[in-house]
């Protein structure tokens, strides 16, 4: 089976990018990262990409879509992964890569997601609400915000003395497992979208 070219879009530290890099190095994903794109010039994720000899590009938010599409095409990306990418993608790009964009979100969607819910804000809202569980969601991206079909979810407990920071750290550990797993399933051709549902095919033996 041919390896899938993966484009990873980032805005921050890139620990999820690192989890993908590590998982690929271990041979767990039938794909390779062909480009890392950041909408923030000083994102540490860009440095991580460079350290691993992966092409890394900064794109200014203002003319994001046009440049993004041309970079993705040039890199021959078959899958786009949003790993802490904080800009909203335009409809044009989502249409061009329909069913081929995966996002990782640090809550159990549909809780604590949508406009304005990103990074620490998600965990602050969960702690303030007093939920007993939170978690992470890997999902396909559609035209809404955090509204596409769910691929994988995993829970973590929320304790009475949790802060946004302690909860974020617990959820992040789960993200680092969940995102590579979802990407791995995609690259093996085992994900099929049926309406709102994602069907995961058994591994062929
Ligand atoms: C992650 O927790 C990711 O789920 C979140 O940003 C963080 C990026 O961390 N994404 C969102 O909140 C998107 N709505 P990282 O740069 O260390 O991977």
Characterise the protein shown here.
- Helix 1 packs parallel to helix 6 and helix 5 crosses helix 6.
- The protein has a single domain (4-200), classed as Formyl transferase, N-terminal domain (Rossmann fold), CATH 3.40.50.170.
- It contains 6 helices and 9 strands, in the order βαβαβαβαβαββαββ.
- Helix content is 34%, strand content 25%.
- Helix 1 links the parallel strand 1 (4-10) and strand 2 (31-38).
- The strands form 2 sheets. The chain has a 7-stranded mixed β-sheet with strand order 3-2-1-4-5-6-7, with helices on both faces.
- With 205 residues, the protein is of the alpha/beta class.
- The longest helix has 24 residues, at 164-187.
- The structure holds glycinamide ribonucleotide.
- Glycinamide ribonucleotide is lined by residues 10, 12-16, 45, 83-84, 104-106, 118-119, 122, 172, 175.
Could you list some keywords that capture this structure?
205 residues; alpha/beta; Rossmann fold; seven-stranded mixed beta sheet; binds glycinamide ribonucleotide
């Amino acid at each position: 089976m041919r390896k899938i070219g993966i484009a990873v879009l980032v805005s921050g530290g890139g620990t999820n990018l690192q989890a993908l890099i590590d998982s690929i190095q271990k041979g767990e994903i039938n794909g390779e990262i062909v480009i890392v794109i950041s909408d923030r010039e000083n994102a540490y994720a860009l440095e991580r990409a460079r350290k691993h000899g992966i092409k890394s590009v900064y794109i200014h938010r203002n003319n994001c879509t046009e440049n993004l599409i041309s970079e993705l095409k040039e890199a021959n990306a078959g899958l786009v992964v949003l790993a802490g990418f904080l800009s909203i993608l335009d409809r044009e790009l989502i249409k061009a890569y329909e069913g081929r964009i995966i996002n990782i979100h640090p809550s159990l969607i549909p809780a604590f997601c949508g406009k304005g819910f990103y990074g620490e804000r998600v965990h602050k809202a969960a702690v303030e609400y007093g939920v007993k569980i939170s978690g992470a969601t890997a999902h396909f991206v559609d035209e809404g915000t955090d509204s596409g079909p769910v691929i994988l979810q995993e829970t973590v407990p929320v304790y009475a003395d949790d802060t946004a920071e302690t909860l974020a750290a617990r959820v992040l550990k789960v993200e680092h497992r969940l995102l590579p797993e979802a990407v791995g399933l995609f690259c093996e051709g085992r994900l099929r979208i049926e309406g709102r549902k994602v069907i995961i095919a058994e591994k062929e033996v």
